[in-house]
Design goal:
The complex is a heterodimer of chains A (222) and B (294). Chain A has 222 residues and is mainly α. In chain A, 80% of the residues lie in helices and 0% in strands. Classes of the chains: A mainly alpha (222), B alpha/beta (294). The interface between A and B is large, with 47 and 38 residues.
Chain lengths: 222, 294
């Protein structure tokens, strides 16, 4: 195997390691929230260091390959998109920390049964599909992720409105509800991150941007 | 108190995860029958057109059914592995292959409206219209001035003022004037390799060609001289059309508007250079430019 191919493989493997870490952090965050567990929240925050280390390592690898290998075509698209996917994964870790940090402040429960868990589950599924679309070079799955973001946005909006209603009707729950608003906002942001990853997967596979499709007529295919 | 609901809220649906596919190649590269040329490439005014070109060295076919268009005031790069036919095609464009025994050419090459392989074509006049710069600089054992004036002299031009004007204009066009203007009578052999190559470009410019054919013009030059020739190519395309054969893919990416990839005498794909180097349509092109060929 050529040295450059090995480096590209290292890049893919690194992204998969980050993605695995992100999924682990999402699962732990959900558990910390459900169990109001300080210990699990601390585990989430401990894992974030690994994300940061991977980000630095993969950034360096991408810059080195751009400088030394003069990549073209599919290799160039993979490296360019990796420079965007890696920070998206790192941000997922940050959002998990933001949620986990509030795990013990949202008790006793004030939301209608299961809506928060449903949001977390949908977001987790989106992240899993985005990662699988990258692993399997699956454009159809990447498009499914992008479409799924609307469903998460709807659910986020529904929970947000429910929390506003609760705060207005019962001032005693304002503190918990405020924490929960930030929790659901962070889940919703993770879904956005998954969407951005899926858009990059489409760029890698098809060579054209899947972002800002309302500008499509004015953009040029690459 | 009821909160105003700005939009209907559908019941969220839990997403299902389909199994990941195992394909590793982008779908676009798996389509077998893509056209060779992006139609947008063909919308510009055309300077040179190659139609159904076949070339044989004796019984051996070196070029097969080449169709190609080169836009006016653009740079087109020919890339491909050694022996793929790119230099052979370049030499077809001003009939340099006529000088090789046992060569047979079929098809048409149109320079403007002129079919250059038509029986009535004046080959000397053709080579004035289609100048050539070779891999190795080949200044004549004459002065710098006489090297540039050579083409005009053999056309019968003897007016000293006109020759001086043409030499200055050509040397300026080749970016060499400031370096040699005080030593025009010195031997061209005393110039550096990069200067000699730019002198050869000046010699080609002197007869005011319509198209300049360059066969690996930087392969014997150091990086600084190469950069100067590449800058020159970008300046020259304002006035001329340029076709360049190169083994240096970064050079093709830097200087050309369009790139054509050849393999075993066939044109595999041609397109805008930025498209060829970011998202080629043919698997073979992708493999070549990413170094995975063969």
């Amino acid at each position: 195997m050529r040295q450059f191919d090995q480096e590209l493989r290292d890049l893919r493997d690194g992204i998969l390691a980050m993605a695995g870490l992100a999924e682990e952090m999402i699962d732990l965050t959900s558990q910390a929230l459900k169990e109001r567990s300080r210990a699990k929240a601390d585990e989430v925050m401990a894992l974030d260091r690994g994300m940061d280390e991977w980000e630095l390592k993969l950034d360096r690898l991408c810059i080195d390959m751009l400088a030394l290998r003069a990549p073209a075509a599919g290799d160039l698209r993979l490296i360019a998109s990796s420079l965007k996917i890696v920070p998206e994964l790192e941000r997922i870790g940050d959002h998990c920390c933001n949620i986990a940090r509030r795990a013990t402040y949202v008790h006793p429960p004030i939301l209608s049964s299961g809506s928060l868990e449903r949001l977390a589950q949908e977001v987790r599924t989106m992240v899993r599909m985005a990662v699988d679309s990258f692993i399997g070079s699956d454009a159809g799955l990447a498009r499914t992720v992008i479409q799924a973001d609307d469903s998460v946005d709807e659910l986020y909006g529904k929970i947000y409105r429910e929390l506003l209603r609760l705060m207005m009707s019962d001032p005693l729950c304002i503190e918990r509800a405020s924490h929960l608003i930030l929790v659901v906002k962070n889940w919703e942001r993770i879904a956005d991150q998954a969407t951005n990853i899926a858009e990059e997967v489409l760029f890698i596979l098809e060579g054209r941007s899947a972002k800002h499709t309302y500008l499509q007529d004015h953009s040029k295919d690459m | 108190m009821e909160i105003e609901d700005p939009r209907p809220v559908p019941e969220p649906v839990l997403l299902q995860v389909p199994p990941p596919s195992t394909g590793l190649r982008p779908a676009s590269l798996q389509q077998p029958d893509l056209p060779l040329t992006d139609p947008s490439v063909l919308s510009a005014p055309i300077m040179l057109q190659v139609e159904r070109l076949n070339l044989f060295y004796g019984d051996k076919q070196a070029l097969s059914d080449i169709h190609l268009k080169v836009a006016r005031n653009s740079v087109m790069s020919f890339i491909g592995p050694s022996g793929c036919g790119k230099s052979t095609l370049l030499r077809c464009l001003n009939r340099m292959n006529d000088l090789i025994d046992d060569v047979r050419v079929q098809g048409r090459v149109l320079l403007g409206d002129t079919d250059i392989y038509a029986p009535e074509t004046d080959v000397i006049a053709l080579r004035k219209r289609a100048g050539m710069v070779f891999q190795k600089s080949n200044p004549f054992p004459k002065s710098i001035f006489e090297n540039v004036a050579y083409g005009l002299r053999i056309q019968g031009q003897s007016d000293r003022n006109l020759l001086e004007e043409a030499v200055e204009r050509s040397l300026k066009g080749a970016g060499l004037w400031d370096e040699v203007k005080d030593r025009l009578k010195d031997s061209a052999q005393g110039l550096s390799g990069g200067q000699q190559q730019r002198l050869c470009i000046a010699r080609a410019l002197a007869v005011r060609p319509e198209i300049i054919l360059m066969d690996e013009p930087c392969s014997a030059l150091d990086p600084i001289a190469t950069a100067r020739v590449e800058e020159l190519i970008l300046e020259l395309k304002r006035e001329f059309t340029i076709v360049i054969v190169t083994h240096n893919m970064q050079q093709a990416a830097r200087v050309s508007d369009h790139t054509a990839f050849f393999w075993m005498g066939k044109l595999i794909e041609t397109d805008l250079t930025e498209k060829m180097f970011t998202n080629p349509r043919q698997r073979m092109t992708e493999d070549y430019i990413t170094g995975r060929f063969g």
